[in-house]
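Quick bug: TadE family type IV pilus minor pilin output formatted oddly.
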Amino acid sequence: MTAELAMALPLLLALTIGLVWLLSVGAAQVRTVDAARETARALARGDDPAAAVTAGRRVAPDGGRVTVTSGGGEVVATASAEVDGPGGLFSVLPSVTVRAEAVALAEEPP
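Here's what came back:
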């Protein structure tokens, strides 16, 4: 029984660390989507572009980037961020880039 436990424990630990890392990638993706959405919504309302991008960066994961384009009556906000691997023995795992894009119709002034 002890030998089996000694063999299985490192595998279970590796699996747990891998699942936690996948969870952090999923959370970063959600925050990236929120950042793009927040930026596009602010720009569509007519907010200052610099303020809208700043608001998006506050929502984005650490080190996230937010870019905006507009034209044809719509605004497009793109957010991206890089999620590093868990490190340690798992330093061979590459970092993952999460990306999201949000489009909003620009509101017409009354």
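Actually, after a second look the formatting is fine. The chain is about 50% helix and 25% strand. Closing.
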